[in-house]
Specification:
By secondary structure, the chain is an alpha/beta fold. It is built from four helices and six strands, in the order βαβαβαβαββ. The chain has a four-stranded parallel beta sheet with strand order 3-2-1-4, with helices on both faces. Strands 5-6 form a two-stranded antiparallel sheet. β2 (31-37), α2 and β3 form a beta-alpha-beta unit. α1 packs parallel to α2. It is globular.
Length: 135
């Protein structure tokens, strides 16, 4: 099972588009979507609750930040595969199935990084050098 985990803060319209794309292009396997809302003031949480009843919504009492928000989502996830997704992401048809297929095909892999494509169609740089103490 795939757990899609989204940490949100004041990204109402982007989150709506993200959740609509997940609804339109879900993976073929069983999945769940979890949104942790970091005390948004733009109505994000209410949008999720009213428009996306299939999504598990957790309203944080404060802005936990990205890492703690993900930890909260991880704690509630029941999938054996976890996808952390930013609320400004839009899923394309077949991408989740392809990602799952690739990850499962490489049993020694513990993570998968997807190609990021901007709204202009250009690939976005999403990697950097290996972290160092100084860096």
């Amino acid at each position: 099972m795939l757990s899609v985990l989204i940490v949100n803060w004041n990204s109402r319209e982007e989150l709506r588009n993200c959740l609509l794309s997940l609804r339109q292009f879900p993976p073929s396997q069983k999945h769940e979507v979890i949104v942790v809302d970091n005390q948004s003031t733009d109505g994000s949480a209410d949008l999720v609750a009213s428009t996306f009843p299939e999504v598990a919504l957790f309203r944080a009492d404060s802005n936990l930040g990205y890492a703690k928000g993900n930890n909260l989502a991880f704690a509630h996830a029941s999938g054996d595969l976890l996808l952390t997704l930013n609320p400004d992401t839009v899923i394309r048809e077949g991408t989740l199935d392809l990602a799952i297929q690739e990850l499962l095909a490489h049993e020694n892999a513990g993570a998968l990084g997807a190609k990021l494509v901007g709204v202009d169609g250009k690939t976005q740089v999403s990697v950097r050098g290996f972290p160092t103490v100084k860096g």
